Amino acid sequence: MKKLISILLLSLYLISTTEVYQLLKIPTLIEHYWEHKKLNPEMSLTAFLKTHYENPVKDGDYGKDQKLPFVVHSAPLALIFTVHPNFYFEAKSENYRPLKSHKIPSKDEDFCYKGFTGSVWEPPRALFI
């Protein structure tokens, strides 16, 4: 469940702050290509892309051309939060109960050899014997 929520939030962030949302317009690109293909069966995909992206012209379907991906760019979403200088947060201590602390030993003193821990990271004394 955490993984699904993480993917969802990351997707929403990328779509709202980058040009990734343009990829959602790909079905419009395919549909518009098929419209041109019906009018001119000899038109290849590369010719269609050159017509609409390399040398765009204002023709009869200019409104549909503007709905294609990566034709019109928009500024990404930018959120700015400021805090007023007189803002303060007051926490009342009477609402909180003290927590009981249970100390958990981090190592077993009986298992640890006293002289071993200090010398474990020393380099070897002799390379060849």
TrEMBL record:
Domain of life according to the entry: Bacteria
Protein name: Uncharacterized protein
Species this protein is from: Epilithonimonas pallida
Source taxonomy: Bacteria, Pseudomonadati, Bacteroidota, Flavobacteriia, Flavobacteriales
